[in-house]
Every structure is written in structure tokens, then in C-alpha cells.
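User: quick one, fold this
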Amino acid sequence: MKTLSPLQQERLKYQPKLPSSLSKGINSLEMIEGEATQSVRDQEQIKELFKNTYGKPVVTFKISDSTQTSAQRNVGVILSGGQAPGGHNVIAGLYDALKQANSSNKLYGFLGGPSGIIDGKYIEFTDEFMDQYRNTGGFDIIGSGRTKLETEEQFQKSLAVCKKLNISAVVIIGGDDSNTNAALLAEWFVKNNTGIQVIGCPKTIDGDLKNDQIEISFGFDTATKTYAELIGNIQRDANSAKKYWHFIKIMGRSASHVALEAALQTQPNITLISEEVEAKKMSLESIVNYMTDIIVRRANMGKNFGIAVIPEGLIEFIPEMKSMISNLNDIMASLETDPSFVNATTIRDKFDIVENRLDEDNAKVYNSLPAIIKGQLLADRDPHGNVQVSKIETEKLLIEMISTRLDELKSQGDYIGKFSAQSHFFGYEGRCAFPSNFDADYCYSLGYNAFALINNGLTGYLSSVRNLTQPASEWIAGGVPLTMMMNMEKRHGEMKPVIQKALVKLDGPVFKQLEANREEWAMNDRYLFPGAIQYFGPSCVCDVTTCTLQLERAKELASV
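Assistant:
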């Protein structure tokens, strides 16, 4: 028997809230269909690739006047990609819904991510097993993985495993890439008349899987609150010691939603937003000059300390760095099998080979970087063959370049301060945190709703729960076709269908809130200290959701 902390024991007892439309049970639902849909871009290509699942309507659920009998079903569930707080509750909601619909229903968990359904590695859930994981963080209930589901062989093996277990539906819990897998699998199952449904659930702490129907991906709420607590702690320390600049890199490769939300919760002196850097075509030098200017002006006020928040993916949004990295991604595939590169005796020899292969302008950019950053750019690639941006220590690169710039200013008599810097990277700290009350409720609702979609015969859909700034009883449950969110993008040198990432909107209310307060926060230390996530107490403390969602929904509601 596991030894549990007092908080663990109390969280296991928490009963997540459901939208009122789902509260009467799975067999008391009526499905309402909207208009036919189309993909966000590249409609003809997406339609051609998803002939059997394209163009379906958005659906919502309401309580039915009649009660139906639910046929016996076996369902498989997969956790895919990086961890996000609340994943266990998605499975708990799915499990409770299928058992409530028909006590003979079975839920199988595929172990280690998508590879589990290919290799036939699974467990069957029981009440006793499920009850150990309710309202807890992590994905340790069945584990996760990043195997892509995209080949005929993988689909055939998945089908064989599903037939063996008499599975009629698969739920994939993941982000944009994982739900692209879900769309491909759903299309293949329909095309081949297998009778197996596929439903996705929107997971990613990065917050870049969202649209009008998916207001937020699960885990974003908990992760950003966790990071905000850490940033707040560091701000208190900085304001106490008054001698360090803290450069904090924070998760979010393809979008800066996490950095933006954490900034709104804590109000640091400097916040960089990748999308703004790209839109304004800011060079690495201009970013350094912007940050240096604030550091110098604060030093002139006697403040040789501060907080800078930097999104993980910043380096890819700097135009000359983006061009260089794109060029590097293209040549690395051949270099990784090139004997002269593989057998190079020193890392500097590898640098020289890379520079000789890069286009002239990109070679100059690469050559200008510190050796540690050059090496990180050559590290192992991600599953798409791209640079693993999280391994690039952007915060240390900025510290080194700013320090050099400050030395130049000091030699010219334009800087009289002292610059001592500390670097931090907040990533894994937030991915498996105990889910907030919001994420516990939201995730449970997503899982419960996923089975409602299955029970109504749908496939190729993403579980959708909306109206999230209102009490959970007023949330709107339904589903959105996965193809509606897709476009074509270049992956491994080929154009492939993928779910479009949602980036920070520079004309949106969330970024505008940061923009309006930047100068005030830069100079006047308006630090906020959010503290730890609270689970018990007044609703205004325990159940409040992110600044991002509140600002976005306020604008949407005002326009209705």
C-alpha cells in the first residue's frame, strides 16, 4: 500500500464538477448538430486527405426528455506526448461515463503512449485501480510516449489489437501532433470499415491548441499557476537581496502563451513575446539593446536587480535565427549520415563543416554565436527532425550578450551599475503538478464528454467543453471535428496535414494587457506574488482560472 501525504489523501476524495448538460448521465443526452465545417486552411488538400471524416458539424449536448439504453462497448485510451496536469482526470471522467452508461463496458489503457496500441501492451481499468489516480498529476497511470501513428503498418497493428480486445472506440489524449494522429487513425478506420471510432482530448500546457470551440487546452491553468508561484518567489528574493537579475526561460516553444500568462500573474520587469519579436522583425541585437536599456535605466535609479521572462521558443522567432535554424534543419538530415561530420574529431571541426554547408548569411549568424549555443543547435533532433529548442539555453545567451554590451557602455561612461545574473528554466516543474480545481473539473468533463461523443456514434472529433469562465454547471459540452482545425505544413521536407497551432494574437486583449503595463512594470517593481495553488477555501481563490481565459472570454462575451 502506498504511503500518501495528507494532501494526496484529500485530493483523492475531491469530486470534480460536471456541466449540467452531462450531470443527468450519458443515457439522458440529446446531440444537437451545427453547420458543416471546413479546415482552417488548405481546404481542398485536407478534404482530399480526409475524404471520410471531413466537413462534419460541430455538436453540442443537452439533457434529453427520454432515457436510452447504451450498448456494451470496450474503449481504449492513450496518453500521448508530454505530460500535462489533469490527464488522470480525463481518464477518470471517461471511465465513470462508460461504466455509468453500461456497467459491462470496459476501459483498456495502452501503455507507454501510442506504441502501446501498436505493440498490444495494455491494462484493464478497475474501480480500485482508477481510484488511486483521481485528481492527481502526472501520466504515470499508463505512461505516455511520442510515437506517431501515420503508417499503414501501424494502423494494421492497431486494428489487430483493437479486434483482439473487442475495442470499438479509442480516445487519444494529447496536443496538436497527437490529435493529428487521432485524425489520421479515425480516417483510416472509417476508410477500411472497421467500425472503430476515434476521439481526441485537447492537452498541452503550451496553450497553443485552441480555437472558438476549444477555449483552452487542459494543463495550461495548473502549469502557469505553478510557474507563476516560482516566479513570484524569485521576485520576492530579488526585491530582498537587490543584487541579481534573474533571467527565467519558461516553457512554450511554438507559442508564448505560458510566458504571457505567467507575466500577467506576476508582473516582471521584462517579458519577451516570441510572436512580437517575429512580427517586428527584431534582431538578436535589437532584443539585447531593448533589455540592456531597461537594465541601465534601472541601474541609474539604484536598482541593480530585476526579473526577465523569456519564452522557450524565442530563438526560433528571431528572423535571422529562424532562417539559420531552418537552413540547419534542412542540412542536418544529410550531415547525420555524412562520414566527415560523424567522424569529426572535435566539436569545432563539426562547427566548420556546418558553416561550410549553410547559406552565406546563415553561416555568419551561426559563426557569431557562442560555442555552447552552437553545440546545442547540433544536439539530437526532435521527432520531426528539428532543433530541440528547449535544449538551447537562450537565457544564458542573452545574459552573455547583455553582459558584453554593458561592459562596452561602462567603458564609455554610459553605465554605472553592477550586473550579476542568475538563469532559470521552468519546464518540468509544471507538467505534473497536482491539477488545480479548474483543471480537475475541466479534465474530468473532457473525459466524460469524450464518451458521450462515442456513445452518439461520432469519430474524428475532439472533446470540447466551453464557456469556461462561468461556473462548471454552465459549461457547454460537445465536440469539434478534428479536420476543422487542420492545415498543411512542412515536416521532414514534406507537406503534411497537421492541426494548426494557435499563436499569441498581438491585437488580442491578453497581449494588449501586457503591452499597456510594460513600462510601469519595468521601472516600478509592481511584483505580484500568486503563491501556491489553493484547493480549499473561497471560490475567488480556489476556482479562478487564468488571466488569459478571462481576458479572451470577456472580449468574446462583450461582442455577443
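User: anything notable?
Assistant: The first helix runs from residue 6 to 13.
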